[in-house]
Amino acid sequence: MPRRTRLFLNVESFETRAALSEDGKVTEFHIERSAEPSIENAIYLGRVQRVLPGMQACFVDIGLDRAAFLQLGDAMKFLDDMIAETGDEGARPRTDRHRSIRDLLHEGQEVLVQVSKAPISTKGARVTPNITLAGRTLVYLPQVGHIGVSRRIEDPAERARLRSIVQEYRNGDDGGFICRTASAGRSAEALRAEMDGLRAEWAQVQKARATVAAPALLRADHDLVIRAFRDLFHGDADRVVIDDAAAHDRLREYARQFMPEAVDAIELYRGEEPMFDAFGIEEELKRALQRRVPLPSGGSIILDQAEAITAIDVNTGKFTGKRNLEDTILQTNLEAVQEVAYQLRFRNIGGLIVIDFIDMESPQHRDQVYRALLDALRLDKARTSVVRISELGLVEMTRKRTRDSLGRILHEPCWYCDGTGAVRSKRTVCYEIFRELRRDAVGGGPGRRTLLVHPAVRDALRGAEKPHLDRLTARLQIEVRIEAVPEYHIEAFTIRRG
């Protein structure tokens, strides 16, 4: 049974948000802010800054604050992954894997690159010299003479039909094409029109390259309104709801050109209540950013995202089960599998992920949970790799990351705790003050001191810690006057003499 999907596009002058709802549940969320435009898939004329032979990599200046990183192995793997998506394992990129990067690139050289991974946290963008231009139903590979069909199109006759149409219309073009899943059932005329459009885009890139000096942006991808429609809209059962009239007209024009049968599915939201409120999407967003996510039976999962790894812990909570402990654990873990797969996709969490399932003694139960996880991840477009559950209940997996997670886009490190999630206790701060008073007395001798502290620390010094402070001041022969400074960080204090 096909999934009932809707694509909601909320357009404001400061940001655009796209939410994909499947069977009434938001499964993907994307956001693009005018102050932080996306550079995913952008094509640049860059200049090689520094070559690193030991890493088979180099840094490329593309005009951003941080240099982009190009790794020869990434460039080859990028094409391998692209071709693997079509199931055509016999085809391979033309790059010689055994050549040194110094044989191909040198400092100061201009190089055409495309962003394969946007800047994440403190890391610059990753780029590849393998250019791809994505359309609604096709991907154009101007530098690789390969024709492929998405492995998600399983009908052999349809795969052969698509391949034949594209092959026949290449017209001596050295470039290649990959038929995306959305190409299934498309007419030859529609496919040929998109081929012409993608070739024209590549011609514009080449024309721009001839008129500028590196570093320079040659082509940016479409904005989020068009990208979301192009990549997330899936056919007749879908519906697109957009709340901005100008963006609505622009999207319909794009649909007329590349998917005319979908024009009537695009509708303008006219309600007075904000669209995301009206359809319950804002509530889904709040839930997506919680550290603890409840499970149906009463258990929960806890997500902690660090710089290089995301840890997910599964807990039974108040769920006690109906039969025995093993059944309780199995049911909680199976519920966790569905929620974990959903959260990874919704929050766009990538990189290394470790899931700590509740320990299962039965090998059969471990295998059942592992297979359930693989099934749940099949709905995810991002490439994943999963290692079998260990005897300790741990699963190690990776999920391809091309941009920051939702949490990192919407949040920033806490200025108060500096991202640690913890601050020193009031008692710890008081005892640090005591030690500092002793140090100050060594150099300053007896006399009066003024102590500036956070109000909560002042209350502690006048309350539970007062006996210790009195004994210390008597021994050091000093008098301490305490003043509260509300603007102070709870760990900050100042000692003034006199």
Structure class: alpha+beta
Number of helices: 13
CATH superfamily of the largest domain: Nucleic acid-binding proteins
Q: Average the pLDDT over all residues and give the rounded result.
A: 88
CATH topology of the largest domain: OB fold (Dihydrolipoamide Acetyltransferase, E2P)
Poorly predicted runs of 5 or more residues = 89-96
Cα shape: globular
The total of beta strands comes to 24
Number of domains: 4
Strand composition percent: 25-35%
Measured as a percent range, the helix fraction is 25-40%
Radius of gyration: 29 Å
Describe this entry's structure for a reader:
The protein is of the alpha+beta class and 498 residues long. The chain folds into four domains: 90 residues, Nucleotidyltransferase, domain 5 (2-Layer Sandwich); 156 residues, Beta Barrel (OB fold (Dihydrolipoamide Acetyltransferase, E2P)), CATH 2.40.50; 117 residues, no CATH class; 72 residues, Ribonuclease E, catalytic domain (Hypothetical Protein Ychn, Chain: A, 3-Layer(aba) Sandwich), CATH 3.40.1260. 33% of the residues lie in helices and 26% in strands. The strands form five sheets. Strands 4, 5, 6, 7, 8 and 13 form a six-stranded antiparallel β-sheet that branches. A hairpin with a 3-residue loop joins strand 1 and strand 2. The longest helix is centred in the last third of the chain and has 23 residues. The termini are far apart. About 2% of the residues have low confidence.
